[in-house]
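#lab-general

N.A. 3:47 PM
ok so I finally got the sequence cleaned up, no stray characters, all 195 residues accounted for. can someone with queue access submit it? mine expired

B.Y. 3:52 PM
send it over

N.A. 3:53 PM
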Amino acid sequence: MLGISQGTLRRWADRGQVGSFTTPGGHRRFPRSAIVALLPASRARRPHLSEIGADSERMSGAYRRMFDVAQGRPLSILGAELPESDRQLFRERGRHMVECLLAHLDADGPAPAMANLHEAADHAAEYGAHSARLGASLSEAVETFLRFRAPFIGELAATARKRGLDTREATGLLVDAETAFDKLLLAFMEGWQTA
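B.Y. 4:20 PM
back already:
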């Protein structure tokens, strides 16, 4: 029920953190009520991402770390370095997309969630169209888009783990994020095709 070893449960009992009793035969037993009391209380809704530290600044940090791992090489399309003005435009659109995605994942109802997702999709479509205008093939453009998907999902997973979201909440969050990114990828590709 708790997902812990018997040894851990015994240590908790030795420290008085969980009630137990010993049978006449010398076996330690734990009342079901004591075990159930250790389970996290069910929440009606998972905490907002901003409450657990998954805000646009933290996501930006994930992208900066990715940039550092790439040894400071700027985003490239067709193997050529982009001018600073284009890189800045991509950064701004990416930042807006991240903000809209976070707002989508935190929305308190379907209407605001969809509004935020549509706004993120608009940024993704602009991103795709600009990639096409710069001469990127569709596969190159999609590859670039996918490189920016991984840090977002990775940072969400790390935050969920560090902040103690239960399995149901963390899984739901990651599934929702992946589903949203799938929609953004389609919008990105449509933007590329219409450019």
